[in-house]
Amino acid sequence: MIWFNTLARVMVMALLSNLVAPCSLLILTSHAAARWPQFRGPNGSGIAEHDNPPIEFGPTTNLLWKVPFPPGHSSPCIWNDRIFLTSFEGGKLETICIRRSDGHLLWRRAAPAGAIESVHEFSSPAASTPASDGQQVYAYFGSYGLLAYDFNGKEAWTMPLPKPANNFGTASSPILLGDLLLMLCDGSGGSSYLLAIDRTTGRAVWRKDRPLFTSNWSTPFVWRHDNLDEIVVPGSGRLVAYDPKDGTERWWVNGFPRVAILVPVSSPSLLFACVAGQGATADERFDLPDWATVIAKYDKNKDAKLSPDELPPEFAWHLRKEVSKETPGNYFPMSSVIKWFDADKDGLCSEKEWLAAIAFVTENKSTMMALRPGGKGDCTETHVVWKSQRGLPELPSPILHQGHLITVRDGGLVSCFEPETGRILYQERLGVTGQYCASLIAADGHIYAASVSGTIVTFTAGEVMEVLARNQLNERIVATPAIADDKLYVRTSNHLYGFGK
């Protein structure tokens, strides 16, 4: 009987081992898939290839947890059961780590910043999204520089950096490429540069100055094609590709607007770069009057010039027609606008300066280009496959999903492009108006578009758009959501949500 009991115990243990091993494998596999390691997820694509997050969700639907969270515009960075974000509250900049399974706070660390950078009233000093390699998390604040922590919150290294000369605040996020941590620090006055850091030690590997570039709010993108990597960075009228080894410029393309915000996306055969203009889009009419009309109406002293005190407050430039005038940075009195184009600095606006202002805004339209790989030097005339100026966004980066290139702009206008030709397959409304800032993300054939007003629209990614759900959270949304482990994580103005089936 003893040998029988022993044999029975061995057989039971073997059976249990066979049962437990697959379960453990499933757990490990699930955790291994929980990766959204930087802004816009894997390689900045905005796509969770193997996830199936809920289509419908809200305060009472598919809600896993909801926790209060301090202000900031950074997006969730996810690695296994850790979510990393940054915040700014009470004059303090912090990197925060919470447990993904239940939203429980694990640790928070303050950046030793001195003076806080000036930011646009719409933005935040905590706008840059952290990045992680599974061992450390890397956070950037324009008011301080770079900081690295291990997963327990212990400081690994710091790299103080000068505040970029940027009137509206920084927004570029760090990204990882192999052993390199890449950080774009563009500012005015010839101070721009791209920095590559050893992610383990925090030592600078190389620095590439960008003297031709002014303030930039985009994030570098790694284009992988033909068995090589290229660091692609837009800004100030051109797009440049750098060699990861030493930062050497490989190629560039001119013809973009000056203010870069959006992040490129790619397929193995094409790169798609979109830069917003400062004027009306190609779908709109720029409605400032001509010089003869404005001088006849407002030139009180008849000196054939305009002074700021001659222009009434109601004579203003409504920049984004799809968004209310009350939106910060969307309604400019012309008494202020003419100061921007006062070339001779005499405090007055001449006909020449007025025409130059109209020409700048009229010509500086949002532009998207598709580029083929393999370029060297100036590729403006040789590697642009197609160019479009219709239906393009100001802030949300596009997405390339299941053979369709898709954008969303203010007013909830979705444009679907054929990637190979640039042909617009459709332009449809999401049914949620107002401003859109968060970039598009996608999984399982579904795309998620978050409006600032607090509604996330789920729609299909096919040749015909179908709205599947309008999920109302009733809180302001600026940060791009994240997807991991079949779940959706959304940062609002006051909370962090975890949604799942």
Task: Outline the structure in words.
The structure is a single chain. The chain has 501 residues and is mostly beta strands. It folds into three domains: 2-32; 36-277 and 366-499, YVTN repeat-like/Quinoprotein amine dehydrogenase (Methylamine Dehydrogenase, Chain H, 7 Propeller); 291-363, Recoverin, domain 1 (Orthogonal Bundle). Helices cover 12% and strands 35% of the residues. The chain is built from four helices and 36 strands. It has helices spanning 2-32, 291-298, 334-340, 351-363; strands spanning 35-36, 63-68, 77-79, 82-89, 92-99, 105-110, 131-132, 136-141, 145-150, 155-160, 175-177, 180-185, 193-198, 204-209, 221-225, 228-235, 238-242, 249-254, 265-266, 271-275, 316-318, 331-333, 367-371, 377-378, 384-388, 399-401, 404-409, 413-417, 424-429, 441-443, 446-450, 455-460, 467-472, 482-484, 487-491, 495-499. The protein has a five-stranded antiparallel β-sheet, with no helix packed on it. Strand 13 and strand 14 (204-209) form a beta hairpin. The model is unreliable at 1-32 (pLDDT under 50).
CATH topology descriptor of the largest domain: Methylamine Dehydrogenase, Chain H
CATH architecture of the largest domain: 7 Propeller
Tally of discrete structural domains: 3
User: Could you give the order of strands across the largest sheet?
Assistant: 1-3-4-5-6
Distance between the termini: 50 Å
